[in-house]
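Trying the structure run again after the queue cleared.
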Amino acid sequence: MNKIVILDGFTAAHVDLSWELLEDIGELTVYDRTKPDETIERAKEAEIVLTNKVLLKRQEIEQLPKLRYIGVLATGYNVVDVEAAREHGIIVTNVPAYSTESVAQMVFSHLLTVTNRTEHYAIQNRKGKWTACPDFCYWDTPLTELAGKTFGIVGLGNIGQRVATIAHAFGMHVIAYTSKGADQLPEYIGKRALSELFAESDVLSLHCPLTPDTKELINRQTLGLMKPGAILINTGRGPLVNDQDVADALNANHLRAFCADVLTEEPPRAGNPLLQCSNAFITPHIAWASREARVRLISVAINNVKSFVEGTPQNVVN
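Done. Tokens:
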């Protein structure tokens, strides 16, 4: 019977979902979390290993001779050395597109936090600010209408395209930097060079993969190309931005706001400069974590394992 080990199963299943259907496929062991020095010991007898953020690089793979399959519990699979896995005859799969709707929703949750400050006013009302106001209304922050503003997108994969659709529905002008040809884009998306995208966007949202070319794409120089008062949103990968450069742009009031669900280091170190910026709105990597998205993730991950065991692997990335 196949021995299956999940190295960090807690974040996907959390307290409301379960991995129990894998018990029909093999002998299952689920660890909530695994430290780097525990990986080999926990996975050494397994033919099938599932991981979300626990690294399985060459040094781990070479110490796991029984391993035949690695299932990444995410869309991005940079936690695995896919070339080393291929060399050792190990299939690697991922879970594509499970979080598209949830991440796109978070983009606009962040944007509306900046433009409408709903939670801020709910808190102000609990403090009696409206009650004590001589007028029928009360506000102490700028309020902004999205219609007519320019929404720029870096990367038009599944999430980027869904974000574009929603921005268009808000009545925004949508532009994008993408490898897709202009003739492949909906009529409401204008293709731009990267420098044009930075210069024209009132809101800039990052949806590109993390590669050597995109690491710290957002830095002092590119921030300087952006409009004063622009809003920057990152729900892609933390290292797409240089934290200190973004913090400097916020503190200088060049950026109106930075909204992020991901940071370069997670959890962030206490001294991360963005944590001290009043106009940085940061959520703790939860855009993917709606119950609906996690149900999809677990379902696809289990089907990936089942397909592998049946000899017809799906969602293979190597």
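The longest helix spans residues 291-309. Worth checking whether this holds up in the mutant runs.
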